[in-house]
């Protein structure tokens, strides 16, 4: 993935989140990008591009060698002062389109909240994590096992929707094994609709700021040459921004009782070759962060990927059964992991329902 040659500097913000003004300074002759497809939840009229190539534009104030663009965020209905809202899926779902991040850098920062293993009836912790999420900015990345135990329509209605349904419009989802306890994960796809992808394969892609986010399905074939692997390959080949996150349910590496899931190794290798930064999983009901490592488990701070497991959304927590190689943080606590996605950097923090910050760090995209 090659970096954009855009000369844009990160935008400054004036005012509050609801009435903010965005200022973008660009050198004349460069490409000006307000998008791509910046959307607030529920906003259907997307701003895609504003471009200028070696000529002045309307809506400008001329300075010595720069172009000043002022955009009223409130007028556009786009919330970018606090965080950049992710675009809708960049493909028509699983196997169609080439999508991906084939646009210059926007310079915007996006915030996403990762969590899995959530709605278990008679477990009060799902309500606690929902209250935590309600007080946080950012879109939700749900990494599977969302409604226990069968992923049935009744489970979604009774065990997930009462506390988490209010976040509809903020989320993207990947299915877990419990969703497939009901044939074809039908109620899952019915509940999440376009937030689970458009064609019921369970995988799709979208942009969050300058990051490509791949929402994948570890319950179906993901090996080299599979339809899902080819989908991810096309997305990665089309990408023109430097940072990638992938989300699926079953972790390749874990210190938890469910053990490693080698069937996702080919997907990891593909991401590794494409210089991805972060993989987010669930399945084991605990929080764990690994240092950068290769698909074979070898630590590699230069070429490896950093994995997070956040199965801490409300289902009963698991004990760690070992300290896996390259595991750098292990926490048994309900909460969510917040990722602040900058154009060439990721910052993370595991936020507990008790108000604690159990783990935090910063890394640069490869």
Question: Would you give an account of this structure?
Answer:
The chain folds into two domains: 12-76, no CATH class; 110-364, Purple Acid Phosphatase, chain A, domain 2 (4-Layer Sandwich), CATH 3.60.21. It is α/β, with parallel strands linked by helices and 366 residues long. α5 runs parallel beside α6 (265-273). α3 (153-164) links the parallel β6 and β7. The chain is globular and about 45 Å long. Helix content is 15%, strand content 25%.
Under the CATH scheme, the architecture of the largest domain is: 4-Layer Sandwich
- Gyration radius (Cα, Å) is 20 Å
- Give the integer mean of the pLDDT values: 80
The count of DSSP E runs of length 2 or more, i.e. the number of strands, is 17
Strand content: 15-25%
Shape type? globular
Could you tell me the CATH topology label of the largest domain: Purple Acid Phosphatase, chain A, domain 2
Whole-number tally of structural domains? 2
Order of helices and strands: EEEEHEHEHEHEEHEHEEEEEEE
Strand order of the largest sheet: 8-9-10-11-13-12-14
How would a textbook summarize the main sheet? 7 strands, mixed
- Counting H and I runs of at least 4 residues, what is the number of helices? 6
Residue ranges: pLDDT <50 for 5 or more in a row? 1-85, 90-102
Helix content: 10-25%
Distance between the termini: 9 Å
Structural class: alpha/beta
CATH H-level homologous superfamily name of the largest domain? Metallo-dependent phosphatases
Blueprint of the fold:
Elements: E1 12-14, E2 21-27, E3 61-62, E4 66-72, H1 73-76, E5 110-115, H2 125-134, E6 139-143, H3 153-164, E7 171-174, H4 186-192, E8 204-208, E9 211-215, H5 227-238, E10 243-247, H6 265-273, E11 278-281, E12 287-290, E13 306-310, E14 327-331, E15 335-342, E16 345-352, E17 357-364
Parallel strand pairs: 5-6, 6-7, 9-10, 10-11, 11-13
Antiparallel strand pairs: 1-2, 2-4, 3-4, 5-15, 8-9, 12-13, 12-14, 15-16, 16-17
Helix pairs in contact: 5-6
């Amino acid at each position: 993935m090659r970096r954009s040659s855009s000369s844009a500097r990160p935008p400054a913000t004036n005012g509050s989140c609801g009435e903010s003004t965005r200022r973008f300074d660009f050198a004349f002759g460069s490409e000006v990008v307000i998008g791509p497809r910046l959307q607030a939840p529920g906003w259907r009229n997307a701003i895609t591009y504003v471009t200028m190539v070696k000529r002045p534009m309307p809506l400008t104030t001329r300075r010595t060698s720069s172009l000043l663009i002022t955009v009223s965020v409130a007028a556009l209905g786009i919330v970018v002062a606090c965080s950049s809202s992710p675009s809708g899926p960049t493909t028509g779902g699983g196997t169609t389109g080439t999508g991906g991040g084939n646009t210059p850098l926007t310079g915007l920062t996006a915030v996403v909240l990762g969590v899995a293993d959530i709605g278990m009836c008679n477990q009060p912790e799902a309500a606690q994590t929902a209250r935590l999420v309600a007080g946080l900015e950012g879109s939700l990345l749900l990494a599977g096992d969302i409604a226990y135990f069968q992923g049935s329509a009744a489970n979604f209605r009774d065990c997930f929707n009462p506390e988490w349904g209010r976040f509809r419009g903020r989320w993207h989802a990947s299915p877990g094994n419990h969703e497939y306890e009901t044939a074809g994960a039908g109620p899952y796809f019915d509940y999440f609709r376009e937030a689970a992808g458009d064609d019921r394969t369970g995988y799709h892609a979208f942009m969050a700021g300058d990051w490509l986010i791949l929402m994948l399905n570890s319950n179906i074939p993901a090996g080299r040459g599979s339809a899902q692997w080819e989908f991810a390959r096309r997305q990665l080949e089309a990408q023109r921004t430097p940072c990638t996150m992938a989300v699926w349910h079953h972790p390749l590496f874990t210190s938890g009782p469910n053990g490693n899931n080698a069937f996702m190794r080919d997907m990891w290798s593909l991401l590794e070759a494409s210089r991805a930064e972060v993989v987010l999983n669930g399945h084991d009901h605990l929080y764990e962060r690994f240092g950068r490592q290769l698909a074979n488990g070898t630590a590699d701070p230069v070429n490896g990927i950093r994995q997070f497991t956040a199965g801490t959304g409300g289902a009963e927590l698991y004990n760690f059964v070992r300290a896996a190689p390259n595991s750098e943080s292990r926490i048994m606590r309900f909460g969510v992991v917040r990722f602040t996605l900058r154009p060439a950097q990721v910052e993370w923090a595991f936020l507990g329902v008790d108000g604690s910050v159990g783990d935090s760090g910063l890394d640069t995209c490869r």
